[in-house]
Design a protein that fits this description.
The chain is of the alpha+beta class and 354 residues long. It contains 13 helices and ten strands.
């Protein structure tokens, strides 16, 4: 059922008031403070109708109403007017997300930090699962007489790298031989296929190449494992100040979200690249999220997912402020990636990420 304009205005006023106070909202408050030109009795009748339609809930201990997930969804999709970011906010974001950053993980961390600082919510960054990514190039770089760096560049621009300590000094010639061998064997194959068949592709012939760099075999395996995308959260303690988190069950759910990260990872798999994705309360399949909202922006390089930034907070979230902020930060990252790719192309190199 489509809501008429009067019901929408009343719903908007209730959401704005509830977001401000965290207290159930009564008809008298709306009538006196929101200049809708309606009597408390009329507003009360409309609130009852909105409750019946599922846009409002009525707590057992109060005569007032609070927005439901369905009410917030309508508000986000078709009622609220997004705020414009201030010059100061844009300046802080632009300063935080530096032009000279070439590694994608650092870029995402900077974005997460500034997002947490500018909001009252917890920011999240989520690595993509790399099982279906393909190896574009493998590089071995000698950084000491007995230390090597192994670098795997995936076809989505992500770089996986690690330091390997060897038992003794490795001749440059042997490093070059093994480097060429790995690329010959593994280029174009996806991470999961290599990991599942590592003995077949590398292990059986490793001793024939150089038995002194056996540690590379184990470290290559470690870099290929990414069964569980990593979640980084910044500013989680901010949420403990919200009155919603004073409730034992809500706090327990939030701590479970942080500890297991299952719900966040599952949500990261959904949504669209380059767009804001909003998941409100009981819209999610996870019981732990019924009192929370997660907003995400998925990043991509050459149509390949490379990570997600976002926020998690109570459903009583300041949507009209944080949604344009996440979008601005996400668009800024995309622009940095694009600029970095164009710069690398001019230099004859591939775009970098992590």
């Amino acid at each position: 059922m489509l809501l008429d304009e009067r019901k929408k205005k009343i719903l908007e006023a209730i959401i704005e008031e509830y977001n401000r106070t965290a207290e159930p909202v009564g008809s008298s408050k709306i009538a006196s403070d929101y200049n809708l030109g309606l009597s408390p009795a009329t507003i009360r009748n409309e609130m009852a109708s909105l409750e019946e339609l599922g846009y409002l809930d009525k707590p057992h201990t109060s005569a007032g109403r609070i927005p439901s997930s369905k009410g917030y969804r309508l508000y986000v999709d078709s009622i609220m007017k997004e705020k414009n970011l201030s010059v100061k906010e844009k300046g802080l974001i632009d300063k935080a997300i530096k032009d000279d950053v070439v590694k994608f993980d650092i870029l995402m961390k900077e974005a997460s930090n500034i997002l947490a600082k500018l909001t009252d919510y917890a920011s999240i960054t989520i690595e993509p699962e790399l099982d279906n990514c393909e190896v574009e190039e493998i590089k071995l770089v000698k950084i000491g007489h007995d230390r090597l760096m192994i670098v795997i560049l995936a076809n989505n621009g992500i770089i996986k790298e690690s330091i390997v300590n060897c038992d003794e000094e490795i001749p440059e010639q042997n490093i070059e031989i093994f480097n060429n061998y790995l690329n010959y064997k593994l280029q174009g194959m996806n991470f999961k296929e290599i990991y599942d068949n590592i003995d077949k592709y590398v292990g059986e012939e490793l001793d024939n190449i150089n038995d002194k760099i056996v540690p590379l075999f184990a470290e290559l395996n470690n870099l290929l494992i990414n069964k569980n995308a990593k979640v980084h959260m910044e500013g989680a303690t901010k949420l403990l100040d919200f009155p919603e988190l004073k409730k034992k069950d809500t706090l327990k759910n939030f701590l479970n979200i942080i500890e297991t990260q299952d719900a966040i990872k599952e949500i990261a798999r959904t949504g669209y690249d380059g767009n804001i994705n909003v998941y409100i309360g009981n819209e999610c399949a996870f019981e732990d999220l019924k009192d929370f909202t997660i907003i995400t922006y998925k990043q991509s390089i050459n149509d390949k997912e490379v990570g997600t930034i976002g926020l998690i907070g109570p459903t009583r979230m300041d949507y009209k402020t944080v949604i344009p902020m996440i979008k601005y930060i996400g668009d800024t990252i995309q622009e940095k990636i694009k600029q970095g790719g164009e710069e690398n192309d001019r230099k004859g190199k591939e775009p970098r990420g992590d």
